[in-house]
Structures are given as structure tokens and as C-alpha cells.
Amino acid sequence: MKIIDCEFHYYLPELMEYLSTRNNAPRYYPETKTLEVRDKLFGHLGGVTNEYPVIDELMNFGAERIAVMDKNGIDVGVMASSPALEELPEKEAIYFAQKSNEAVAEIINKYSERFLGAAVLPTPYVDAAIKELERCVKELGFKYWHTHSNYKNEHLYEEKYLPLLAKAEELGCAFYVHPQASDDKDMKDMGYVYSSPGLGFGLDAMKTSLRIILNGTFDKFPNLRMILGHLGEFFPFILDRVDNRFKWIRDDEVKMKHTVSYYFKNKNVVVTTSGNMSKPAFECTKKVLGIDSIIFGSDYPYESLSDMMKFMDSLELTEEEKEKVFHLNAEKYILSK
Q1: I need a labelling partner for 129 at 20 to 30 A (CA). Which of 110, 117, 136, 240 fits?
Q2: How far apart are CA 91 and CA 47, in angstroms?
Q3: CA–CA separation, 39 vs 231, rounded Å?
Q4: Mean pLDDT (10-residue bins), the chain, 337 residues
């Protein structure tokens, strides 16, 4: 059975070298393999989750990455940049977005049929981001755009980003809202794990993605598609309540024409399995959103790829359902143009 991994992370080595020269976050400390994601908020990337330290796997563009895929039965990995680049000054953000996308294009060409590309953009600089997105889709053949839930003090739901979302719809390009560490003081005060993978990631992605929906984005751009990881963050668990509250209490700020759940049913929003190896969570997602909305993603190398594959094997899915999750849904909703 063909298996496409739609969340296969990387960092451009040249970007990490630059981050090591900065005096503030995002800043990389190569001697300790630590990334300062926010001022005085440190993510340690030297731990071994798969074969060798996470940061080394992130920066690997060679045969070792293929070996990990072969060992775990992954046929195709969609290369998606981890966060930091979108928070850089304009000149650096544009430069490293171009270089990152070109590096992904090179690995796609080198290892035929094993990789696909998700564009990384200098997102806050909208005109440059539009230009780079067009290049990625039309010239490099990338399949979707991988972005993050915040750019420090900015978010994708803001009005300035509408032209970029309009261009994504025009190009038939889905966008993946991956979490980033919150810049809220109350989150940062409790440290990296609380503000980031332990809780903050999911909260921040939920806030950004829900506001994108509430703003009426998918009414303006009905063919646009958003991807959420971790089995839809917390949406499957609370979707009925969200619908109920917004139906019961009217807010003038809410511009959407339908219920929140409508945009999930209409496939404006689809989800991946990345980073969530809970059977009850999977069953909840399957029951609420349907098997057609679930796409395989591993969150490699932040998660153990072998553990993720064991988890997928443990699910009571029919062969037809496995085909949908492992490749058909991706091919239908986010990899086709």
C-alpha cells in the first residue's frame, strides 16, 4: 500500500547557521543544539527520537532520510520547513524561503518519486510571499504551502493576508497551519513545553484556524483548503459545542455564513494524524469528521516514525479506510491541482 507522509519536517542548514549569529529569538545555539524560539524560551533539539539527534535529522537532505523512510515503509515524504523563517526581517525571510524551497526541489530531483514539496514563504511580507508561492507551484511543482499559527505578533487571519489566501485559492494550493510557540506572556512564563508542544501549540493553532473560519475566509474563497495537524488539534472534541454557542449567541465580529462544522464537512478543512497517537482521539476524529477528512502525517522527526507506524497498524481500519488515510485522501484534497 502506498504511504505518503504529509508532515515530514526539515530545516535548511544554511538557515540554522544564520540563526546562530542572531542576538535574539529565533536564535540557534549549535554547541547545545538548542533553538531559542522566543526570548528566553528554549527548545532542545539534541534528543534522539528516531535514529540520531532531532536537529541533525531535520537538516538531513541525503540518503539517511531515505533510509529512515525505507525502514518504516514510507514511500513519499512531503518536505515541510519547521518554524523560524517567517519571523525574520524581510530580506532574510525572502532569501531563506527561496533557498529552502530550492533545497527541497533539489532533493525531489535527486531522489525521484520519494519526495514532494510544501512551500515555505516569507509570509508576513505578502507581496514577496505571493511571488514565491507562484514560483513554488508553477516552477518547482510544490503541492501546498506550509505555514504557522503565528509570526510572533501577527496571524494569518488578519486582513493583510487576504491577497495571499486569494492567490493560494487561484493556484489550487492548500495551506497547512502548523502550530508555533505562543508569544503570550502567560504561556511563556511556564516554560517551553507548556507554551509549545505540551499545550501552547494546540491552543495557538486552534485560535488562528478558528478565526480564519469565523472571518468568513472560506465564503470569500470557497475552493480554498486548510490543513490542521494532530488530528485537527482540539476541533473534533469541541466542534458540536462551538456550533451550538455561535448559533445561540450572535457576535457582530463573526462573518462566516455557515456553522463551523460546515467548513469541515465541505472539506475546506482537513486534518492529519501528525503527532497524535491516541486511539480514542483517532476514533473521535473519524466519527466527527469522517475517514475522508483524515490524512497521514508523522511529524517526523519530532515524533518516532516507528511508533507512529505501529500506532497506525493498531487501528481497526478496513483496507479501504487505510488506502484513504495513507494516500487517497491526500491525493484528492491536498496534492492535486
Answers
A1: 110
A2: 32
A3: 30
A4: 97 98 97 96 96 97 95 98 98 98 98 96 98 98 97 96 98 98 88 93 97 98 98 97 94 95 98 97 98 98 98 98 98 91
Report how far residue 329's alpha carbon sits from residue 312's, in angstroms, rounded to the nearest whole number: 16
Confidence at residue 185, expressed as pLDDT on a 0 to 100 scale: 86
Task: Report which of 152, 145, 185, 189 is spatially closest to residue 167, judged by C-alpha positions.
Answer: 145
Distance CA 327, CA 66 (A): 18
- H/E run at residue 76: strand 76-81
DSSP string, 144-164: EEEEES-SSS--TTSGGGHHH
164: closest CA among 122, 227, 116, 102? 122
Q: What pLDDT is recorded for position 337? A: 63
273: left (phi over 0), alpha (psi -120 to 50) or beta: alpha
CA atoms of 144 and 118, how far apart (whole Å): 5
Angular region, 182: left φ>0, alpha ψ -120 to 50, beta rest: beta
| pTM, 2 dp | 0.97
**Cα–Cα dist 7/119, whole Å:** 12
- CATH H-level superfamily of 4-333: Metal-dependent hydrolases (3.20.20.140)
Give the residue extent of every domain in the chain. 4-333
CA dist 208 and 179 (Å) reads 9
Residue 250 is predicted with a pLDDT of: 85
Per-residue burial over 43-55, b if 16 or more Cβ lie within 10 Å, else e, is bebeeebbbebbb
CB distance 312 to 289 below 8 Å: no
Q: What integer pLDDT is reported at residue 184 of this predicted model?
A: 86
